[in-house]
Amino acid sequence: MAVALTPARPAPADDDTPRLIVSRPSRGDLIFRTVLRIAGLSSFFITAMILIFLIIRGWWALQTDGLSFFTKQNWIFVGNQFGIGGVLPDTLIIGVIACLIAIPVAIFTAIFIAEYAPLKLRRMLVSIIDLMAAIPSIVYGLWGRFWLMPRALGTMSWLSHHVGWFPPFRVTILVSASTYVGSAMIAGMVVSLMCIPIITSLSREVFSQAPQGEREAAYALGSTKWGMVRTVVLPFGKGGVIGACMLGIGRALGETIAVLLIVSPTFSLNWHVLQSGADSVAALIAGRWASAGSHELSALMAAGLVLFAITLAVNSLAGIVINRSRSGAQTAD
Amino acid sequence: MTTVGRGRAPQALAGSAADGDAPLQIRVVTSEDILALAGAAIGSLGLTWVIYERLMPWSGGFGFWVCWYLVFLVLYLAVAGLQWNRLVVRDKTMAVLVSTGGLLACAVVFEQLGYSLVKGLAAIKHANFWTQTMLSAGPASSLNVGGIVHAAVGSLEQLALGSVLSVPLGLMAALFLAEVGGRLERPVRSIVNAMTALPSIVAGLLIYALAILTLGLPQSGFAASLAISVVMLPIVTRASEVVLRVVPGTLREASFALGASHWRTVWKVILPTARSGLTTAVVLAMARGFGETAPVLLTAGYSNALNTDPFHGWQATLPTFIINSVLVYGAQPNEIVRAFGAGFALMVVVVVLFVIARIVGGGRPGELSRRQRRRLRKEAARS
Question: Which one, of B345, B326, B348, lies nearest residue B335 by Cα?
Fold first, then answer.
C-alpha cells in the first residue's frame, strides 16, 4: 500500500525563536540623527509658518469680506469693496496663455535634445536649457517690456482684426496707440519663456529613460525615427510630461516680476486677452506693496495666502502625477 | 534620417576599395536634405518679404518672423512631398519642427544675454557705472555720473548672508533625506519639492509678516537675506540630495565595517566624496538667489546711497535698482539705459556662477581632478 510521504519536520525547540536585533546608536550618533531630523523638518516648519503668518496678517481682510473676497472685482478700501474676483481669473488666463505657448515648444525641444541632437550638442543644449532656467525673471521682464512689446503690437492688432470672431481676441475698448499695450497676451508670451526650461528639462530626462529594447523593436519593425518617437518615447514619457506641464503651470501662476513690468493693472476680470488690462495676484502684491496702508496690507496678505495655496496644490498634484507614472517614477529624485 | 524611398547606397570612403577593410562612412544627412531645407527657407523668406512688405499693410518685426516660419514649414512640406513618399515626408517634417524648437531655446538665451548688453552699452562703458552710486546723480543726469555700486554691494551682501543661513540647513536636510530617512522621508521630500516651486513673493510676504511686523526687525538687508534663504533652502536641499544619493553605498558600508560611527562616516567619507556635486548644488542655488527680486522688494527697502551694513538701514540690490529705474523713473531714457546696464551686470554674475558650477561639478563622486591625480602620482613616486 502506498504510504503518503510527509517530510519529517524537526521538533520545534523552545529556544529556536529568531532573536531581536537592537542597534543602539552611540550618543554622538543620536545627537547627529536628531540634528538632521530637525533640519529635515525645517521645511515643514517654514511651510507652517507661511500658512500661520499669512492667515494672521490677512485675517482682517478675510473676516471683513468672507467668501466675497473671491468674487468682488474692486480694490477700494473705503467702504471695504475689495476682492480678487477679477485678479485671480486674470492670473489663470496669463498662466493658460503661457502654457499654451510653452508646452509645445518645450516638448519639441525635449524631443530634439533627447532623440535628434548629436551627442556633442546634447550636453551643451542641456546646459543652455539650465542656464535659461537660471536667468533671473527680471531680465526676461526687461526684454519683454522694451523689445517684445513694441514689436508685437502689430501682430496683436492683426489678430484682433482678423481673428476677432474668436471671443477672447475681440477688443472692446477704443482702438488707439495704447490699446494693445500691457495685455495678458504679451505677459503670457514672456512668462512662457520662463516655463519652457522647466518643462523641457524634466521632459528630456523622462524621454531619455525610454527603454532601449522598445526603441530597437520599433526600428526592427521598420518605423522611421519620428514613428519610433511617437510610438515608444512619447507614450512612455506621458506621465512625466504631464507632471512637467503642471510644474510649468505652477511657475506661470507664481511669476511676479515679469508680469509686473509688462501689464497695465486692472482689477476686473478681463478675458479679452489682446487688449490692455491684465494682472496677476503676485504682480498685484508686488505693485501695490509700497503704497499699502494697514487694511490694504491685510488684503495683500490674504491674496498671498490664496496664491500660496494654489501653487502648493498644483505642485503637489504634479508631484503625485510624476511619481505614479511609469516614466516619472524612474526619474524621481 | 537615412533615406528610404530612393534607396541610396551608403557612400564609401574614397580608396577603401584598395585595402577593403576600411569602415564605411554612412551619410545620414544627404545633400538632398540640405537642398530641400535651404530651398524652403530661402523661398519662404522671399515669399514672406513680398507679401509682408509689399502687398499687405502689416507691420512689426515679430509678425514677419512668425510668418516666415509658417511659410517655411508649408514650403518644406511641399518640397518634401514632391520628392519622397508620405512616411519619409512625415518623418523629415517632424525632424525639422523638433530641431527648430531646440534652436529657439538657444536663440532665446543668447538674445537675453545680448539684448541687455546692447541696450546697456552706453552706460556700461563708463567707469563711473561700476564705481559710483546714485547718491549724487539723478535719473535725468547724463551717463557719466552715477553708478550701481550700492546695488551691487547690496546684492552681494544679501547673497552671502542668505547662503550662510540656507546652505548649512539645506545640506543637513539633504543628509537627513539621504542618510537617516525613515517614516518622515517621503513627506519631507514632497514638501521640499513643493517648496522649490514656491512663488518668491510669498517668501517675501512671510519674512515681512514674521520678521518685520511680528518681531519688529527693520526693513534691512538682513531681512532680505532671510527671504532669499527661504527661496534658496529647498533648492539646496533637493540638488544636494540628488548628489548624496549617488555616492556608492559600498563606501558607506566599508566605513561602518571599520567601526566608524554614523556622523564620522558622513563627515569623513560621504561629504568629501560628494564635494564637487554639493558645490554645484550650492552654486546653482546662489545663482538663483542672486536674481530674486520680489522678496527683496518687500523686505529691504530702497536707497540711493551705499549702505554696507546689512543689519541697519535700507539697501538697494541690482534687481530693485532695475525695478525702481523702470517703474518709477521710466520716462527718463538715461535711467532705462542704466537699468539695462544693471541687468547686464546681473546676467554676468549669474552666468559666471553657472559656469563655475558646471566646471566644479563635472565629475562623478570620487572622481579625482587632474590636479589631485598629479599630486597622488608625485607622492607615489616619492615614496
Answer: B326
